Amino acid sequence: MVTAREPSTPSLGRYRRKRDFTVTPEPAPAKPVTREPAPLSFVVQKHWASRLHYDFRLELDGVLLSWAVPKGPSYDPKEKRMAVHVEDHPVEYSAFEGTIPRKQYGAGTVIVWDRGTWEPVGDPRKAMKAGKLVFQLHGEKLAGLWELVRISKPEDSQDQWMLFKKRDEWAQPLAEYDVIKALPDSVTRNPLGLVEEREPKVVRPVHGDVSAMELSAAVSAPLPAKLEPQRATTASSLPTTGDWIVESKLDGYRMLARVDKGRVRLFTSGGHDWTKKLATLATEVAKLPLSSGWLDGEIVVLRDGLPDFGALQTAIDGTANDEIVYFLFDLPYCDGSDLTNVPLSARRARLAQLLEKDSDRIRFSQDFDAPIVQMFEAAAGLGLEGLMLKRRDARYESGRTQTWLKAKCRLRQELVVCGFTARGGKDGEVGSLLLGYYVGKKLHDAGSVGTGWNARTGRDLWQRLLPLERDASPFDVAVSKPSRWSKRAAGAERWVHPELVAEIEFAEWTDEGVVRQASFKGLRADKSAHRVVRETGEALKPAPPSQVKVTHPERVVDPTSGVSKLELVRYYESVAEWMLPHLVDRPIAMVRAPTGITGETFFQKHAEKTGMPGLKAHDRNLWMNHPPLLTVDTADALLSAAQMNVVEFHTWNSTSQHIDTPDRVIFDLDPGEGVKWKQVQEAALLTRALLEELDLQAWLKTSGGKGLHVVVPLAPRLDYKSVKSFSQAFVRHLAKTIPDRFSSTSGAANRIGKIYVDYLRNGKAQTTAAAFSARARPGMGVSMPVSWEQLSDLKSGAQWTVQTAREYLSFHTRDPWEAYWWAKQSLASAIKRLR
């Protein structure tokens, strides 16, 4: 195996000469240091400079051999991608992400698109001289055998090569899988794990009964006194290949049972002995036909057939805990045999034999012979925590592994209770818990939680926390200010010694490391506070959009850009995560183009004979004397509509929950004939300035067409008539104050050289193109949310298109509208001031 080694003469002179390290954040080459032999690394960096390209880098002799690949890699062996050999880069560059300033070499933004290790086939140094380098990649997105071939001549100004995929089990036609479009984001921000582990190329073995299964790996061994359990890694996506056993993720406490000559002891995952606490359960385990062994499972309490975490806590703390059920899922030791190297499927078959006799309290954790996607949707629909996915051939390994995955419908983990506030500012009942987690030996602020308990639990928490109270904060740094996601409850913060651990369910982590939309599930008596760290991973979406079948994928939607129906559907698939918050629960109007945007197009607002699976049709009573309104609430619904030739999505200014009281005002800045783009930008600033004089914050997005949208979020209190009246008064004030810039009257003749600010969109049932919606216009522009700081850099209202928007988003992970969702403003004062 070729390993990394330090060069005798580093070839980084060109790299140094091209850069001013006092200005650029790129790493300056460090002094060579002696390193232990290690696998060679590779990195692919996505670089938006003067144009988008991919930098392909292979570590060799202490530097990164580098090629600029304009179109990026492809798994299709027929796709020969141009690769220009450029200067070597320092090894430290493999971790670089950031923005190279203007006027610097390579100015633009860089993200790490893929990373991993590589193995050359043959001598790589001789291969580089010969101009033919064959190698194996082991990355998070790229795998298999690849080749770089020099195609330039010695006299050519550029050292040009071709990068292409060799034919092997990883090769796929571009029409079936485009890795560039399927996985556009940074792997440092969204780690995927090795693709070879996510999607192993294996053939599912055929298993018979347990006696015929592969048990040859079992060895005779004494029963261990202790056993650290195998732990699962949080899945970043549902595996689409490989052989997985699928179980429900039970909402309880992990519990291991040690049986030694009929004597049973029960241990938590942290090694605490709970035998006395669960004495009746230990008695039930002792009845199993097992002389000695270790059993692995989860204890739960069922309510209406589903695990109830709160009920489990009550049962554990009570003297009578006969309601606790022990679901067993693994058998690492059995009657003198160590089964840890036996495939999981065989261990579970042996476990099932032990549990043949029915028992209300000791049960086998069933697996399900159904597609993972369907199982995940069912789990989410039932309100379960998620799924456990285990490789069928996995051995039992103590500690966290990639062969066991947990696919969460919603994020959940333990956090340390570091403080509290009183409900309503009065002693006796907890109003919120202040949370943290350990980074090394220091506590990091994780925000707060103020929901998930009743008054009785609030009083109980108060009694538990009072004896632990201390004067100073236990955090390593000052507590973060309330963020858009986590708002501290009212009342003075009181601090406690960090001893208690709470189970918290939440939507996501913010960039500041704070939990968003948190809910308290209970205290964890089985967890030690000092072991609580932040888990990685994200909650998965119940319906992976890639499952949609696209009919007539080749149909051209826009002849000017060549965008096909498949491209449009894949665009909506790729932006579903960003777009859905702007769609969910809002009645919609859809622009459909069955033959493309140059053919006949029409609006659809209601359910019709042409069904779109996944779209929600609301009760007719929601809008009396009208057909049922439709909403797009899921990724499935979004893609179902796109598959049915929907190009544009327009939304109401109110949700179905508050159908008569809008929660936003929209001002559509529509330039008339002769208006230059700079005037549109100035108009947006003037509109914002007037709104700020009225103490109203506004957010900005491109329209996807000629203009801009200025959006003002509201608390849904006033009716449509009042809100529309305000918007009309606002626009008339603009036009009256600056008549040479603005017009409040529609019609082309009334806005020549001016900008018409459309307030009519604020009436009931009126709609505006949703954020991220494509537009049925030549070029297929996209309505893109932007920050006000970006306004001066915008070139048009259609700056981003179906073909470029997703690439732009891969470089911009923060939502410029992040504070929008919490800005519930009142119009009362503004209305008075405009009169």
TrEMBL record:
<protein>
    <recommendedName>
        <fullName>DNA ligase (ATP)</fullName>
        <ecNumber>6.5.1.1</ecNumber>
    </recommendedName>
</protein>
<dbReference type="GO" id="GO:0003910">
    <property type="term" value="F:DNA ligase (ATP) activity"/>
</dbReference>
<keyword id="KW-0269">Exonuclease</keyword>
<keyword id="KW-0378">Hydrolase</keyword>
<dbReference type="Pfam" id="PF01068">
    <property type="entry name" value="DNA_ligase_A_M"/>
</dbReference>
<dbReference type="Pfam" id="PF13298">
    <property type="entry name" value="LigD_N"/>
</dbReference>
<feature type="domain" description="ATP-dependent DNA ligase family profile">
    <location>
        <begin position="317"/>
        <end position="439"/>
    </location>
</feature>
<dbReference type="InterPro" id="IPR014143">
    <property type="entry name" value="NHEJ_ligase_prk"/>
</dbReference>
<keyword id="KW-0238">DNA-binding</keyword>
<keyword id="KW-0547">Nucleotide-binding</keyword>
<keyword id="KW-0227">DNA damage</keyword>
<keyword id="KW-0436">Ligase</keyword>
<keyword id="KW-0548">Nucleotidyltransferase</keyword>
<keyword id="KW-0233">DNA recombination</keyword>
<feature type="compositionally biased region" description="Polar residues">
    <location>
        <begin position="1"/>
        <end position="11"/>
    </location>
</feature>
<dbReference type="InterPro" id="IPR012340">
    <property type="entry name" value="NA-bd_OB-fold"/>
</dbReference>
<keyword id="KW-0067">ATP-binding</keyword>
<keyword id="KW-0511">Multifunctional enzyme</keyword>
<feature type="region of interest" description="Disordered">
    <location>
        <begin position="1"/>
        <end position="34"/>
    </location>
</feature>
<dbReference type="InterPro" id="IPR014144">
    <property type="entry name" value="LigD_PE_domain"/>
</dbReference>
<dbReference type="InterPro" id="IPR012309">
    <property type="entry name" value="DNA_ligase_ATP-dep_C"/>
</dbReference>
<dbReference type="InterPro" id="IPR033651">
    <property type="entry name" value="PaeLigD_Pol-like"/>
</dbReference>
<keyword id="KW-0239">DNA-directed DNA polymerase</keyword>
<keyword id="KW-0540">Nuclease</keyword>
<keyword id="KW-0234">DNA repair</keyword>
<dbReference type="InterPro" id="IPR052171">
    <property type="entry name" value="NHEJ_LigD"/>
</dbReference>
<dbReference type="InterPro" id="IPR014146">
    <property type="entry name" value="LigD_ligase_dom"/>
</dbReference>
<dbReference type="Pfam" id="PF21686">
    <property type="entry name" value="LigD_Prim-Pol"/>
</dbReference>
<keyword id="KW-0808">Transferase</keyword>
<dbReference type="InterPro" id="IPR014145">
    <property type="entry name" value="LigD_pol_dom"/>
</dbReference>
<dbReference type="Pfam" id="PF04679">
    <property type="entry name" value="DNA_ligase_A_C"/>
</dbReference>
<keyword id="KW-0479">Metal-binding</keyword>
<dbReference type="InterPro" id="IPR012310">
    <property type="entry name" value="DNA_ligase_ATP-dep_cent"/>
</dbReference>
<keyword id="KW-0464">Manganese</keyword>
